[in-house]
């Protein structure tokens, strides 16, 4: 989505007008050989901007938890100077 006030006058603004399209926030996976969109993820509510996207090599089914999720306290291990500190 365009960053209102931060970035203006980008080609994106003109392209959205030309296509009579509404902007949306999400991620698209592009096949670099063909340029085709092979998968996409769209955020419908609450997320208006992504700051970073990363590829995790060898991971096929990653998961995500909210900071307030009860499961978070049972699955995170932090290395504390060689001693595992389990939260």
Mean pLDDT: 79
Q: How does the helix and strand content classify structurally?
A: alpha+beta
What is the element string, with H for helices and E for strands? HEEHEE
- How many DSSP H or I helices? 2
Q: What is the percentage of strand-forming residues?
A: 15-25%
Evaluate the radius of gyration. 19 Å
**What is the 3D form?**
extended
Q: How many strand segments?
A: 4
Largest sheet composition: 2 strands, antiparallel
Query: Which bin fits the share of residues in helices?
Result: 10-25%
Low-confidence stretches: none
Tally of structural domains: 1
Q: Name the strands of the widest sheet in spatial order.
A: 1-2
Please give the alpha-carbon distance between the first and last residues.
37 Å
Give a short summary of the structure.
With 87 residues, this protein is α+β, with helices and mostly antiparallel strands. The protein has helices spanning 11-19, 72-75; strands spanning 25-30, 37-43, 77-80, 83-86. It is built from 2 helices and 4 strands.
What can you see in these coordinates?
It is a single chain. The chain has one domain. Helices cover 15% and strands 24% of the residues. The protein has helices spanning 11-19, 72-75; strands spanning 25-30, 37-43, 77-80, 83-86. The protein has 2 helices and 4 strands. The chain is extended, with a radius of gyration of 19 Å. A hairpin with a 2-residue loop joins strand 3 and strand 4 (83-86). The chain has a two-stranded antiparallel sheet. Strands 3-4 form a two-stranded antiparallel ribbon. The model has no long low-confidence stretch (mean pLDDT 79). It has 87 residues and is of the alpha+beta class.
């Amino acid at each position: 989505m365009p960053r209102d006030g931060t970035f203006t006058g980008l080609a994106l603004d003109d392209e959205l007008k030309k296509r009579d399209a509404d902007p949306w926030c999400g991620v698209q996976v592009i096949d670099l050989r063909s340029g085709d969109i092979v998968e996409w993820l769209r955020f419908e509510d609450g997320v208006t901007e992504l700051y970073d996207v990363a590829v995790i090599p060898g991971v096929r089914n990653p998961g995500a938890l909210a900071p307030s999720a009860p499961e978070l306290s049972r699955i995170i291990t932090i290395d504390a100077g060689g001693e595992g500190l389990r939260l």
